[in-house]
């Protein structure tokens, strides 16, 4: 008897948001920062404040796709001794809120844990899927088998530089939603979301009915509203992580960090509700 | 014998890029997706896939274009100083009391190491792709210096990422790069060494890929880099094979090279791969010793994993977090190895042994005193390994050692190691 993950929960979230005429808000925080329990509290706080879907980041020694904010938090988490087992425990605690919970991870920790074992453990923890930004479709065979067997959605990314052919390839194996990188670059809050994002979402919609969520660069409710006007989901990471980092650095205590997370998450949640639902999403 | 005459087919394809005759299965790697057996591949964000496809296509076109080939061949001869000689190390051979030692003198190539072979190829390719900016990572600084050099020659903007720790260990090379017009960016994240410089270069590349080429310095990274760098470096073995044949009338019994990422080793190994009588031996950096855990021996002390866009052997913990490597040699201080080496190891066609800091430094001193050649600490690892092999094989055998770089950059490190300075050195600044 194979324990099944909560695949399908992502689709439910996107369908429910669509009915409400809004986009889904996806929030990212790394496990283990400032501590394992502190991160769990922050993730639960952002769900209470309106985040629909949680990405639990697996801190990694060589985060080549992350900007300084997520690097700093991941470094601190690793110095604090966070392990893959801690990440799974975090997923369990967050999935308990009812929010679909994904792991966002570089590929090596999964491979090292054992691809099949990682899928089984994540499913047992109540995880909904995994985002694997450095696992291209060409190398994803074993992972797709394991994710399929354990009821997990495998989420893959497209980028502004993706050809239409590659978008077709990526979307053909993706489950849950398509992660569209808004710009060419690493993670980090920016003044404006890349202009390429809207065009990319259109190109993805041309080949799939899967929901499309846009990430990279979103930092506040205003930007969330802008993105929500054309995307099914808005993904926010660095801005949330920065809120925790700033509170830690200011030494204002864990409660201040949680408060900052709640304020930002509420602002973002209002943002995804401010825009009219993306027209192309209703099919 | 000149390397330029090594291509005996009469075509314009130069020895650097010509297919290996009779290579059989060995020539079939990598596959179209960049696999060497179970190693290699492309583990990068989707944002970089288009650039890697573009590079793969541009490279295939370039090596089929006689004009590109002629230009590279011309630069290798008139600018880089190829072919580099093979030197018979008589006094060293006598001292070791084993096999006859022949040295392939990449230390005599322009900029002082084999790195120039690869960067000339990649920078010409950069211009061909219409890109104007080149980024590179560097550990010891040799690849950074070579890249800065090629960029100066070809009029390209150059940015070199270097771990902060390495900028201190190799301050002279930082100054050299800046003199050559490159911007050197010290990297303060992670372990502040080569692996973190690669991380930072990858972050730059994903944001600037439209106008930037990432000139990777070793046979590593996502496909097509391990293949492309190997092809640009294989001139070393192509020349050396001819030179050894001319000198001794037979193939060497063993070819020995140091291995960090492994470009000088792949460069000298590749032409010999079909010659199955020739033992191919790579020397990994053993740091304080394999047993201490403070080393950079990815094959001897690592396990299969994925890092920097490739599947290969890496130093990592049970959770797949990269372990920090240790070596007195900044150029070998990397927790991984190129995927083709991983494959050669798995197939048994090459073997890898470990040389620790002490053995390497002893070799450096011995080569200096017996041959008047001050080799790079990286290359000294190859010599120390070759001494072991020489004693194992005995006086009838011939060993070709890749002297991959010169040691001028390492004088400060060696002076401290051997306590050669009269006045107390500024030990805190090292």
Which properties best describe this structure?
heterodimer, A: 283 residues, alpha/beta, nine-stranded parallel β-sheet, 12 helices, globular, B: 430 residues, six-stranded mixed β-sheet, four-stranded parallel β-sheet, 16 helices, disordered N terminus, Tryptophan synthase beta chain (chain B), tryptophan synthase activity (chain B), TrpB-like_PALP (chain B), Trp_synth_beta/beta-like (chain B), aromatic amino acid biosynthesis (chain B)
Would you give an account of this structure?
Chain B: One of its GO terms (cellular component) is cytoplasm. Chain B: Its cofactor is pyridoxal 5'-phosphate. Chain B: The modification N6-(pyridoxal phosphate)lysine is found at residue 115. Chain B: The beta subunit is responsible for the synthesis of L-tryptophan from indole and L-serine. The complex is a heterodimer of chains A (283) and B (430). Chain A is α/β, with parallel strands linked by helices and 283 residues long. Chain A is built from 12 helices and 9 strands. Chain A has helices at residues 9-19, 36-48, 68-79, 84-95, 107-113, 115-124, 141-149, 164-173, 196-205, 221-228, 238-250, 254-274, and strands spanning 24-30, 53-57, 101-104, 129-131, 153-155, 157-158, 178-181, 212-215, 233-236. Chain A has a 9-stranded parallel beta sheet with strand order 5-4-3-2-1-9-8-7-6. In chain A, helix 11 (238-250) runs antiparallel to helix 12. The radius of gyration of chain A is 17 Å and the shape is globular. Chain A starts with 8 loop residues before the first helix and ends in a 9-residue tail after the last helix. The relative contact order of chain A is 0.17. The mean pLDDT of chain A is 93. Chain B is of the alpha/beta class. In chain B, 41% of the residues lie in helices and 16% in strands. Chain B has helices spanning 46-63, 66-78, 90-96, 115-128, 142-154, 164-169, 171-179, 194-208, 225-233, 235-248, 263-269, 298-301, 339-347, 357-371, 377-393, 411-417; strands at residues 35-36, 39-40, 86-88, 100-105, 133-138, 157-163, 183-187, 212-214, 254-259, 279-285, 303-307, 310-314, 350-355, 398-403. In chain B, the strands form 4 sheets. Chain B has a 6-stranded mixed beta sheet, with helices on both faces. The radius of gyration of chain B is 20 Å and the shape is globular. Mean pLDDT of chain B is 92; it is low at 1-16 and 18-24. The interface between A and B is large, with 39 and 37 residues.
């Amino acid at each position: 008897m194979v324990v099944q993950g909560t695949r399908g929960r992502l689709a439910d979230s996107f369908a429910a948001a669509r009915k409400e005429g809004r986009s889904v808000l996806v929030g990212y925080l790394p496990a283990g920062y400032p501590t394992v329990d502190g991160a769990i509290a922050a993730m639960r706080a952002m769900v209470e404040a309106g985040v629909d879907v949680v990405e639990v980041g697996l801190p990694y020694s060589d985060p080549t796709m992350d900007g300084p904010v997520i690097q700093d938090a991941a470094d601190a988490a690793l110095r604090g001794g966070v392990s893959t087992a801690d990440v799974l425990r975090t997923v369990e605690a967050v999935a308990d809120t009812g929010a679909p919970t994904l792991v966002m991870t570089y590929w090596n920790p999964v491979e090292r844990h054992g691809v099949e074992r990682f899928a089984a453990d994540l499913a047992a923890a109540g995880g909904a899927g995994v985002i694997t930004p450095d696992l291209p479709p060409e190398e994803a065979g074993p992972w797709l088998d394991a994710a399929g067997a354990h009821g997990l959605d495998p989420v893959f990314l497209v980028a502004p530089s993706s050809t239409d052919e590659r978008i077709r390839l990526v979307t053909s194996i993706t489950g849950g939603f398509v992660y569209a990188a808004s710009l060419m670059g690493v993670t980090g809050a920016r003044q404006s979301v890349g202009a390429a994002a809207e065009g990319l979402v259109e190109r993805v919609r041309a080949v799939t009915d899967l929901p499309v969520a846009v990430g990279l660069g979103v930092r506040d409710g205003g930007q969330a509203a802008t993105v929500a006007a054309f995307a099914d989901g808005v993904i926010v990471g660095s801005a949330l992580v920065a809120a925790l980092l700033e509170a830690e650095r200011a030494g204002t205590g864990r409660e201040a960090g949680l408060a900052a997370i709640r304020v930002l998450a509420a602002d973002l949640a209002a943002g995804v509700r401010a825009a009219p639902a993306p027209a192309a999403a209703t099919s | 014998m000149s390397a330029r005459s090594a291509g005996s087919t009469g075509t314009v394809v130069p020895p650097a890029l010509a297919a290996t005759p009779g290579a059989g299965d060995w020539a079939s790697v990598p596959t179209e997706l960049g696999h060497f057996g179970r190693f290699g591949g492309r583990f990068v964000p989707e944002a970089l896939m288009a650039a890697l496809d573009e590079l793969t296509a541009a490279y295939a076109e370039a090596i089929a274009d006689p004009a590109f080939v002629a230009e590279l061949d011309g630069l290798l001869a008139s600018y880089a100083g190829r072919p580099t000689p093979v030197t018979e190390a008589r006094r060293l051979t006598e001292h070791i009391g084993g096999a006859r030692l022949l040295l392939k003198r990449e230390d005599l190539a322009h900029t002082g190491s084999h790195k120039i072979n690869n960067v000339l190829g990649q920078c010409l390719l950069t211009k061909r792709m219409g890109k104007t900016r080149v980024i590179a990572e560097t550990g010891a600084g040799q690849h950074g210096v070579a890249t800065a050099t090629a960029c100066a020659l070809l009029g390209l903007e150059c940015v070199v990422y270097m771990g902060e720790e390495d900028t201190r260990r190799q301050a002279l090379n930082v100054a050299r790069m800046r003199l050559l017009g490159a911007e050197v960016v010290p990297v303060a994240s992670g372990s502040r060494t080569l692996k973190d410089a690669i991380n930072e270069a990858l972050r730059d590349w994903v944001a600037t890929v439209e106008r930037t080429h990432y000139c990777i310095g070793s046979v590593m990274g996502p496909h097509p880099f391990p293949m492309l760098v190997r092809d640009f470096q294989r001139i070393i073995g192509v020349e050396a094979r001819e030179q050894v044949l001319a000198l001794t009338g037979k193939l060497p019994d063993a070819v020995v090279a140091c291995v960090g990422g492994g470009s000088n080793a792949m460069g000298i190994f590749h032409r010999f791969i079909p010659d199955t009588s020739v033992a191919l031996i790579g020397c990994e950096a053993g740091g304080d010793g394999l047993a201490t855990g403070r080393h950079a021996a990815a094959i001897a002390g690592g396990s299969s994993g994925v890092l920097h866009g490739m599947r290969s052997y890496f130093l990592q913990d049970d959770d797949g977090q990269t372990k920090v490597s240790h070596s007195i040699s900044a150029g070998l201080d990397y927790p991984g190895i190129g995927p083709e080496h991983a494959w050669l190891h798995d197939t048994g066609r090459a073997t890898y042994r470990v040389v620790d800091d002490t053995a390497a430094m002893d070799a450096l001193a011995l080569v200096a005193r017996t041959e008047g050649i001050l080799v790079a600490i990286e290359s000294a690892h190859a010599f120390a390994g070759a001494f072991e092999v020489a004693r194992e094989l005995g006086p009838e055998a011939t060993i070709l050692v890749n002297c991959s770089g010169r040691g001028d950059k390492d004088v400060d490190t060696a002076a401290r190691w051997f306590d050669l300075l009269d006045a107390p050195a500024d030990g805190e600044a090292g």
